[in-house]
Design brief:
The chain has 181 residues and is of the alpha+beta class. It contains three helices and seven strands; from the N terminus they run ββαααβββββ. It has a five-stranded mixed β-barrel with strand order 3-4-5-7-6. A two-stranded antiparallel ribbon has the order 1-2. 18% of the residues are buried.
Length: 181
């Protein structure tokens, strides 16, 4: 069968090549140009990666069925669409959804340390610097620290980060409330 003056297998092949190139370009440059697809609007199935993958798989399976079978072209299109839908659904459920809910980065901002509790690992003199270790979900963070109140703070003391100035934590002794219950 011919459409637009070309055999259907040629149209499937062109669709495969074009959608494959567009998929690679999208994957490489989506973050540069801030294309985020449907975002949090609820239409996650309209994600460009899924659309490109659907067209690529539809074209590839359509091309293969046209070349290797004598089925009717409507049946080939229907089978290819079902195969593409199943593969794209599996891609979305098992790859894209888990990746989108994964933690983006282990990087922290210094302003995020404000209000955290840490332990002094190098004593902090009244007018100098020591070091504080803060436990976080991604590991431990050791930062230089000075006393916010101007008091000396010995090793092993739990401290509260009051503020961060020029990369140095300003800390005070953390007094934990005792429970009498």
């Amino acid at each position: 069968m011919e459409t637009f003056g070309m055999p259907l297998e040629t149209i499937y092949l062109y669709g495969l090549i074009i959608s494959g190139v567009l998929t690679v370009l999208y994957v490489l440059f989506a973050d540069v140009f801030h294309f985020h697809g449907a975002g949090d609007g609820g239409l996650h199935f309209l994600n460009p990666v899924l659309i490109f993958a659907f067209v690529t798989i539809l074209s590839a399976s359509g091309y293969l069925f046209e070349r290797m079978s004598s089925l009717h072209y409507f049946l080939i299109l229907a089978i290819s669409a079902v195969i593409a839908f199943i593969v794209v659904t599996l891609l979305n459920v098992f790859v894209l959804v888990p990746l989108s809910s994964a933690e983006e980065s282990l990087v922290y901002k210094e302003s995020d340390l404000q209000g955290r509790v840490g332990t002094v690992i190098t004593a902090i003199p009244a007018d100098g610097f020591g070091e504080v270790m803060i436990d976080s979900t991604s590991g431990r963070i050791a930062k230089p620290a000075s006393s916010f109140d101007g008091d000396e703070i010995p090793n092993g003391t739990n401290v509260l980060v009051v503020q961060v100035k020029n990369g140095v934590l300003e800390v005070t002794v953390h007094h934990q409330l005792e429970s009498y219950i």
